[in-house]
Design a protein that fits this description.
mainly alpha
């Protein structure tokens, strides 16, 4: 997941370079960014959840890593001199002229990569939920998410510098090629893990993460999830919150350039601190959630911080163009990004049957992907409409797009409050700790012994 998150945002600090070198407009960049989620939106992610519940963690993990590598190679080819200027490029550029041929092919590769990335996400979530059931599940998920966030920090630090690593004119190819090689290394490592894990299974006679007969999954379970009010509250909270986070990472570098009048490298250096708050706080927040609970309250607080940060970016930063203000706001947004995921994902096993937990995660990710597919496209169009006649990518006005993000935060807050109210009435355990107290464990063991 570390390498996957690096690849997701490898071109985010390079938006200005893509516009200058390859002729991508803000709309084209938004369409490319949204393409990561397109195939998932149109049903692949639902199929991925069924594959996970049917085939198990090892098979699904290998498949997801392979898809990520394949998509990365296509995207790398699309922006390289091997493709740009060819007859194929000319044909792709001849229709839907708002999207250059390189943007179309890069978007296709990003679609395939996105299928693998989201499949890997639900695979990791189900594996952790299974292995840490009744233990430090939130801490384990927090550590996994923290490592992934470190990938975002790393790529915002490296990408602008790698683009100039060969000297001469800056290049988009070098950072993308670097991250593609990292994905290939990740695939090889997972294949080695799979072989070793199977060997251990044969030696011990114990299954490891594969679907057991007592966890038989039925397709009818998917329909039950769609009829669950609680599922939709969690899913809509998820999509609204993340729609104000991940698209922000795509456009945030250029937003800082425009508001502060700084270079892409300096803007990326500021934005790279966004995941650091999440990286540092997610594991300890997960530990506190395991020990003390208060998951629903964390969702509310995280949504409030999200709203405040995007209002600062929309209204205050253009009026007070201070790098210190920008950095503080970015760090606070990182705190929000620690609070919500740390509480959201460990809450799902509390309210969903473990038999179809993989499908529950996949359907929540599917709803999330609908937003993450549409919002970058919407953002690009709002940005273009707000800057009609502006040709210099350093002169864009980001007020309206950032207000849109703040609006998503308000809606996420409403669903977080609704979830807390339901938990108070129905006692789902969202405010309860994940680790049962010693007294509760002893009582459960005594009851089991009596039976």
């Amino acid at each position: 997941m570390f390498f996957a998150y690096m690849f997701v945002d490898v071109m985010s600090p390079l938006q200005e370079l893509l516009e200058v070198r390859l002729g991508w407009s803000p709309t084209a960049f938004g369409n490319y960014a949204g393409a990561e989620y397109m195939l998932n939106v149109f049903g692949f992610l639902i199929v991925a959840g069924i594959i996970l519940d049917k085939m198990g963690v090892r098979f699904t993990g290998t498949l997801s890593a392979s898809l990520m590598v394949g998509g990365a190679v296509i995207k790398l080819y699309a922006i390289s001199p091997l493709f740009v200027g060819t007859a194929f490029d000319g044909w792709l550029s001849s229709w839907w002229t708002a999207m250059p041929g390189s943007a179309k092919l890069a978007a296709l590769g990003f679609m395939i990569f996105g299928c693998g990335c989201e499949m890997a996400g639900i695979t990791v979530s189900k594996a952790i939920a299974r292995w840490f059931d009744g233990k430090e599940m939130a801490l384990a998920m927090g550590c996994e998410m923290a490592l992934a966030r470190l990938g975002v920090f790393a790529v915002f630090s490296l990408s602008p510098r790698l683009s100039q690593a060969l000297g001469g004119d800056p290049s988009v190819v070098v950072p993308v090629a670097f991250c593609t090689v990292l994905l290939l290394i990740g695939l090889i490592c997972f294949i080695v893990f799979t072989v070793m894990d199977r060997t251990l299974d044969r030696q011990t006679g114990v299954g490891s993460g594969e679907t057991s007969s007592e966890e038989e999954f039925k397709l009818s379970d998917v329909g039950g999830l769609f009829r669950s009010r609680l599922f939709w509250i969690i899913a809509l909270l998820c999509v609204l919150y993340y729609s104000a986070i991940f698209p922000f990472q795509r456009f945030g570098t250029n937003m800082l350039q425009c508001n502060l009048g700084i270079s892409a490298e300096t803007a990326a250096d500021l934005l790279r601190w966004f995941p650091i708050g999440a990286l540092m706080l997610t594991p300890p927040l997960g530990y506190c959630l395991d020990k003390f609970g208060r998951g629903a309250t964390m969702l509310i607080l995280g949504s409030l911080l999200l709203i405040g940060c995007h209002l600062v970016f929309a209204l205050l930063l253009p009026a007070v163009p201070s790098q210190i203000l920008a950095l503080v706001t970015i760090l606070v947004l990182g705190v929000s990004f620690a609070l919500v995921p740390a509480a959201l994902w460990p809450s799902v096993p509390k309210v969903m049957d473990k038999r179809y937990l993989g499908s529950a995660y996949s359907l929540i990710f599917w709803v999330q992907n609908i937003g993450l597919f549409g919002v970058p496209i919407l953002f690009g169009n709002v940005l273009a409409a707000s800057n009609a006649g502006v040709t210099d990518p350093m002169e864009y006005d980001y007020t309206n797009p950032m207000l849109m993000f703040a609006g998503f935060g308000v809606l996420a807050l409403i669903f977080a409050l609704w979830l807390k109210i339901l938990d108070t009435r129905k006692h789902y355990g969202l405010e309860a700790p994940n680790i049962a107290s010693d007294t509760a464990v002893e009582a459960a063991e005594a009851e089991s012994a009596e039976e």
